[in-house]
Design a protein that fits this description.
Protein name: TnpV protein
Distance between the termini: 45 Å
Number of strands: 3
Strand order of the largest sheet: 1-2-3
Number of helices: 3
Shape: elongated
InterPro entries: TnpV (IPR026989)
Keywords: Plasmid
Length: 83
């Protein structure tokens, strides 16, 4: 028998497993965003906004590394200022 998920989302409602039954929750579960998750999200958004992609990585690896280092530094600085 497969293990049941601790929480599910169906028909626009969150359900939480209690014992062997699911009960509806009035509030959605809290996101578990760690600092690393938020930093990674900022880096992904900045990379996409600046057009840094796998094509650049293949064409000019040094330029890609430099751009990624700049983005990572900027994201870390932004994250430090926000928290």
């Amino acid at each position: 028998m497969e293990a049941l998920e601790p929480e599910i989302f169906q028909n626009g409602i969150w359900y939480k497993l209690c014992g062997e039954q699911y009960y509806p929750c009035l509030l959605p579960p809290e996101p578990e965003n760690t600092e690393e998750d938020l930093l990674e999200l900022i880096i992904q958004q900045m990379t996409k906004a600046q057009g840094i992609d796998e094509n650049l990585k293949e064409r000019d690896p040094l330029a890609w590394v430099g751009a990624m280092n700049n983005i990572k530094s900027a994201a870390q600085e932004f994250f430090r200022e926000e928290t």
